[in-house]
Amino acid sequence: VQLQASGGGLVQAGGSLSLSCAASGFTFGSYAMTWHRQAPRKERELVAAISSGGRTNYVDSVKGRFTISRDNAKNTVYLQMNSLKPEDTGVYYCAKGRRAGWGYGMDYWGKGTQVTVSS
Question: Is 43 exposed, middle or buried (0-12, 13-18, 19+ CB in 10 A)?
Fold first, then answer.
């Protein structure tokens, strides 16, 4: 299993970024996928999740600003981030869920991509 995240960068507060995670080595459409982030000196947190069927879930702090989506034909999961805030800064990781639905933990992680939001 390989997960390759991309799309991070430096953006001003209020701006947007789109992250992508290309997956390989498993039947992508059969598993939930998730995005997590780890801010400096903080624990990693779940940001958004999407089930194999497309049901989504978000941490409260990003609801209405972030959108997770997936393209099973391209084996890719996306995270569209709008109205970014400095507190969104961190390393963003994609992960593969253990089952079709989210909530059962993750078993593989990508290497992460840095997102920095300046004030």
Answer: exposed
